[in-house]
């Protein structure tokens, strides 16, 4: 620490909250400031496409306001960082304020991708923020037909929630199956089956070529010439790291903020965590993870490193989940789309599959099989032979 500016965390989501929390737990007693462009206190995003959208949950705050007061964590909400000067060690905010830092943590998450060729019509939405979820929920109350563009996790969850609200839903996905780029075709087909059983019209292998309507969206055109009626269109085609504000700062960005194994960026006293950060893994590859559990794992590493201590040496088995209808899809390990997939259980709705690479189990994916997924953790961590599990 060179001044008493303390630690400034840019971003108001899970990564920011976990970092601040972990810093106080590590008994750092200097100033901590969280800077967010959102007006809300840091909140949890997974419920946005699930319970919040279905109207079953309103309070998604990660911590109540009192937590930040008790822990003496300053919140600068509603005015994001627009520039970073790594020489002067300052950030500039949208309201013109300039904040100095001793250490800076970048935790600015992702921005949903849109389709630039589509006209700007009302009723065409993306989902990343609480405000977007609440607006979609309100809109869904008067919607008859929705088209979800993209069958990734968020698209699939939104489709499931909209079905529960009684909306007729079509999913349009250019790949051969939902989630195919992440989990491969075999599991993607099981996910498509789940949605079809719930009445979703799942159209794969075809993209969207346009949307039309007068002011509000009315029709969606597909590349195969089909036209669908729609009064709500949800674009779920993925997100990009929120790094525009770092332009000219000298912080290296390449599919996210490039970090070493402890979250240290290319600039002095600047760190990055969460969905925006591409951390080096143990084998030297840069990996950017967009899942909830990863944030807490990274916070446990970045905080001791930032405070000059030794980060713990833990073997992390990556994990994420996705809730679609009554089926919790869970993934442990690092499965890839082109691994050999062994579906070992399938009752027509729920399933369990092991992923094999070079004879070794690298991941497990279950749909509605929580106990069995977790049982595979030690085998995956140990790099066990697939034969041990079959
Ligand atoms: C709808 C939805 C559902 C999800 N469901 C699951 C799930 O079921 N399972 C799972 O494992 N993961 C899920 N995730 C992913 C998980 O929520 C993320 O991994 C997690 O939120 C990442 O936290 P983060 O703090 O890195 O980013 P974010 O939560 O995106 O937070 C970034 C924050 O930074 C703010 N910000 C951006 N730019 C600036 C700036 N220049 N200045 C100041 N502030 C800025 C943003 O407004 C935002 O508040 C879901 C994500 C979404 C969006």
Report on the architecture of this protein:
With 390 residues, this protein is α/β, with parallel strands linked by helices. It has three domains: 7-111 and 240-306, FAD/NAD(P)-binding domain (3-Layer(bba) Sandwich), CATH 3.50.50.60; 114-237, 3-Layer(bba) Sandwich (FAD/NAD(P)-binding domain); 326-388, FAD/NAD-linked reductase, C-terminal dimerisation domain (Enolase-like, domain 1). 22% of the residues lie in helices and 30% in strands. The chain has a five-stranded parallel β-sheet with strand order 3-2-1-7-19. Strand 4 (81-85) and strand 5 form a beta hairpin. Helix 1 crosses helix 7 (292-306). The longest helix has 15 residues, at 292-306. The termini are far apart. The relative contact order is 0.13. The mean pLDDT is 96. It binds flavin-adenine dinucleotide. Flavin-adenine dinucleotide binds at residues 10-16, 35-38, 45-46, 48-49, 80-81, 107-110, 127-128, 154, 242, 245, 274-276, 290-293, 295, 320-322. Flavin-adenine dinucleotide (FAD) binds at residues 10-16, 35-38, 45-46, 48-49, 80-81, 107-110, 127-128, 154, 242, 245, 274-276, 290-293, 295, 320-322. Residues 319-386 form the Reductase C-terminal domain.
